[in-house]
Amino acid sequence: MPLLPWHDIDTVLLDMDGTLLDLHFDNHFWLEHLPRRYAQLHGISLAMAEMELQPLFERNAGQLQWYCLDFWSTELKLSVRELKLETAHLIALRPDADTFLAAIKSAGKRVVMITNAHRDSLSLKLERIELAPYFERLISSHDYGFPKENPQFWDALQADIGFDPARSLFIDDTLPILRSAREFGVAHLLAVREPDSRKGPKDTEEFAAVENYRELVAGL
């Protein structure tokens, strides 16, 4: 994990799920809880539910509707928000993420959350984990109509908050999103080594990765 050139960074852009929050909640919900409840609610086997859901997931991955609870509620004929409440006890902060947030805020950095999470998902998580006070803005890609994977998201973000990409740090656990940020010109990029605490470390390919948030503030 590199020592960051904090003197060259004015703005810190942070993802939420898998970056500040443990991705276990989302992975468990979409891969285990939702298929099981879908099977129960529609009176089919779990195997049949998984067979029906898999192509839907693959077709919509990386697009704005993939992150939209309204889309999935309509598509699957059930209330995704209500089902998420059934597993909300699994929502958890990643180790020392709050220490990191407090440090960069007190150092006078501009701190902005940029998440693909639907506003309902964002609200659900903020009800359980007190993140809002650390941020100048909490931005959902649904506000702009483009996911972070899309170059138009970055144009909209620039028009909205007027940040300098060359003096910005962006941390995200999704490699295509980091590549989209790099194309836009964001100079300082970090992936996350272990976004899901139950799945172990992942290969972050060409990106350096956050392994310990407490160590990340060295030199701040």
TrEMBL record:
GO MF terms here are: 5'-nucleotidase activity
Root EC class = hydrolase
EC number of the protein: 3.1.3.5
Q: Which Gene3D superfamilies is this protein grouped with?
A: HAD superfamily/HAD-like
**CDD domains recorded for this chain?**
HAD_like (cd01427)
Q: Looking at the keywords, is Hydrolase present?
A: yes
Q: What protein name is recorded for this chain? A: GMP/IMP nucleotidase
Q: Which domain of life is it from?
A: Bacteria
Q: What is the lineage of its organism?
A: Bacteria, Pseudomonadati, Pseudomonadota, Gammaproteobacteria, Pseudomonadales
Query: Which key words are in the record?
Result: Hydrolase, Metal-binding
